[in-house]
Write a structure and sequence with these properties.
about 290 residues, alpha/beta, GMP Synthetase, Chain A, domain 3, Rossmann fold, three-stranded mixed sheet, 13 helices
């Protein structure tokens, strides 16, 4: 169970003028592909900030948002919220408000679950617990400062990862020659190699390969029980129907316009990030 009436987060962000419909579609694609919350997907795509998402979540849930990085942290309050509860629910004690009835104020991520607040009430012995929403980054900083908790899994994995050689070229399948040329030129500016692939080459891909093709072309190639080992990045129109068709045949990525260089680069890097690549997307092949 979650607190507050629920409105669609994307609609709130658009109403606030923080994103447009195309940017929401991009975030939804990332959200469905990676199974991360929509707000985090939009931040990862660079279309809005954590503060933007927090503002919208506050309106969505009816819970006040705070800038936790600016809040004074009191180590004495860790006796009220144990390290186990802090780790499990990512909750940070803020202050204890004195009065007729004491109120313990806490920061936690959205959505603010009743389970988390019940756990804080139980362990702290305070019947009134007031929630405040905080960003993931700020919560991580506060949990590290108060409890010594680190989000070190990804950093440790990266440190232990073996060195990798150059990525295989992006396989372009079933694009008209002019379109394939424009895609190749745009990606080459960022050091990304491409290769026009035949149906036989696509069917014999390995897990390291990434195939970029129109939705309808891959539907035809993979009719029946056919499958490929490589990852698929597909393109169609901006209609939701094409996105659903792409997901049905197992695509891991989708872009509405193959000549939109910025969206294409983001999709490729999300599916097959290249170590040391910190260049920023440039305008598309037509710009």
């Amino acid at each position: 169970m979650q607190l507050g009436a629920r409105r669609m987060l994307g609609e709130i962000l658009m109403e606030l003028g923080l994103i447009d419909r195309a940017q929401l579609r991009l975030g939804l694609v990332h959200h469905h592909e990676t199974r991360v919350p929509l707000g985090r997907a939009l931040v990862r795509e660079g279309v809005c900030t954590e503060a933007d998402v927090l503002r919208a979540l506050s309106l969505q849930l009816g819970i006040a948002a705070i800038d936790l990085d600016r809040e004074p942290l009191d180590p004495q309050l860790t006796r009220l919220v144990t390290k186990r509860i802090a780790r499990q629910y990512r909750v940070v004690p803020l202050r204890l408000e004195k009065g007729e009835r004491e109120v313990l104020h806490v920061a936690l991520p959205a959505p603010a679950s009743l389970e988390a607040l019940d756990a804080v009430r139980a362990v702290s012995g305070k019947p009134r617990v007031e929630p405040h929403l905080a960003s993931d980054t700020a919560l991580s900083n506060a949990l590290a400062a108060l409890y010594g908790l680190q989000d070190g899994g990804s950093e440790q994995a990266a440190a232990n990862a073996p060195e990798r050689g150059p990525d295989p070229p992006l396989l372009l399948y079933a694009w008209p020659p002019v379109t394939a040329t424009l895609i190749t030129r745009a990606l080459s500016r960022h050091g990304l190699r491409t290769k026009v692939a035949t149906p036989l080459e696509v069917m014999h891909t390995t897990a390291a390969d990434l195939v970029f093709a129109p939705v309808q072309a891959m539907e035809g190639l993979l009719a029946g029980e056919a499958r490929i080992a490589g990852a698929m990045l597909l393109s169609g129109t901006s209609e939701d129907e094409d996105l659903e068709r792409a997901h049905r045949i197992g695509a891991r990525g989708y872009v509405a316009n193959p000549l939109d260089g910025e969206l294409l680069l983001r999709a490729i890097r999300r599916l097959r990030p290249t170590s040391g690549d910190d260049s920023r997307p440039h305008p598309g092949p037509n710009g």
